[in-house]
Amino acid sequence: MNLTIVGSGYVGLVTGTCFANTGNQVTCLDINPDRVAMMRRGECPIFEPGLAELMTRNIEADRLHFTGDRDEAYGNGELIFICVGTPTGADGRSDLSAVMAVARDIGEAIESGACKVKDPVIVVKSTVPVGTTAKVRDVIAGLTKKPFSVADNPEFLKEGDAIKDFQVPDRVVCGVERERGRVLLSKLYEPFVSPANPLMFMDIESSEMVKYASNAMLACKISFVNEIARLAEHYGADIARVREGMCADKRIGDKFLFPGLGYGGSCFPKDTLAVIEMGQDSGIPCLLNEAVHDVNQAQRHWFFARIAKHFGDDMNGKTIAIWGLAFKPRTDDVREAPAKTIIEELLNRGASVQAFDPIARHTFTEYGLDIKYIDDMYDCLSDADALILCTEWDEFRSPDFNRIKSCLNEPVIFDGRNVWHDDKMADQGFTYYSIGRRPQHEAVESNS
Ligand SMILES: NC(=O)c1ccc[n+]([C@@H]2O[C@H](COP(=O)([O-])OP(=O)(O)OC[C@H]3O[C@@H](n4cnc5c(N)ncnc54)[C@H](O)[C@@H]3O)[C@@H](O)[C@H]2O)c1
Questions:
Q1: For 227-447, which CATH superfamily applies?
Q2: Can you tell me the mean pLDDT for 169-181?
Q3: Which one of 5, 93, 167, 369 is CB 3.0 to 4.6 Å from 28, fit for a cystine?
Q4: Cα–Cα dist 338/202, whole Å
């Protein structure tokens, strides 16, 4: 099949590459000329494990193409996937301007004949509030009387595991308005689905809602365990044991119930806000989702409060080392990264910050924060008064603790992801703070 993918970011590029890999002819369109130039040179503009290799293979097979030219992109696309960003706008509402701009482009391309396909199917893959795909249809229909139809096909991939998630999805959800959409999407997704990984068809509104319901549920689990962790810590319980006991209940399960600095990234924060927005628009307040969002925002500040308690409010003259800038491991995405909040709080109190991240340095520098970037995880500790771990990259899981101790001015660690063991850290002479576990030194003080 001939496919057009509009927007070549974390979703569009993975989608285009994986569809090319099953034999389709794919043209990826993007408005960012630097990004298009990179991709045309065969370079992958984002860090996503396995993506660069898969891109190369499909470029060499002449199945995967990149362009900034709309007429070229829309020329042969039987299915046109809209994969552009839908961030939270300055007014707190979903910013659908990119989606609507693409809808206008598509309408013009169909009307002018630049789109040579008769009856193309326009598929919204971006995460959009319920009713948006219908608006896309209205915008295109306002520009042309030629036949086309729309569909919604939300994406559930996780950055860091995107290729696997796309190729072996738990499920593929499609909202369609016409039989043609169902037929083309069934054919396209056939190599990716099975009875255990089903392809589900439904109405467009339900399909749009599935995406938000899923992300809101996952965000809810994270905020839930973080709230319990705060209580556990206060009452001297250990969240690791609480989690073990709770998750042994098969009705609860053990996924997405890890305490930490809260969720970040380009999806959960904005998708939770979009659910709240849909509630406000409909007069059906989404109180649970409001609480999920509030707990999440508070979590990073709550974690910072213990840093401020340790050092005092004035941190002038203190140097703090940060391990991890990405919002989670295996990605260079730093959107809504907890590390940013922690670093801003440190700088506000006068501390100097030096940071190491295996991959995300180049994206984090775009925030323009006045910090030092260090290329080696141990060099980053040099002359620092404490280490704060913000992202649980694999290389941080079993570090050389003797080396950490010898590099730091003081053996103080704030573990924002609970990757190390409380008791062992105290035995090795660290003052160790984590989440949902009362620090050993405080337990000793309160027992004496
Ligand atoms: N990132 C994820 O993990 C993830 C997962 C599932 C769903 N989603 C959803 O997918 C959508 C895209 O997310 P993303 O993270 O890939 O975004 P992104 O910001 O990484 O990429 C968007 C791309 O679209 C391009 N673009 C913007 N306007 C354009 C236009 N008019 N024409 C052509 N290209 C244009 C941008 O230059 C950019 O390259 C969002 O709605 C997001 O919520 C994201």
A1: NAD(P)-binding Rossmann-like Domain (3.40.50.720)
A2: 98
A3: 5
A4: 36
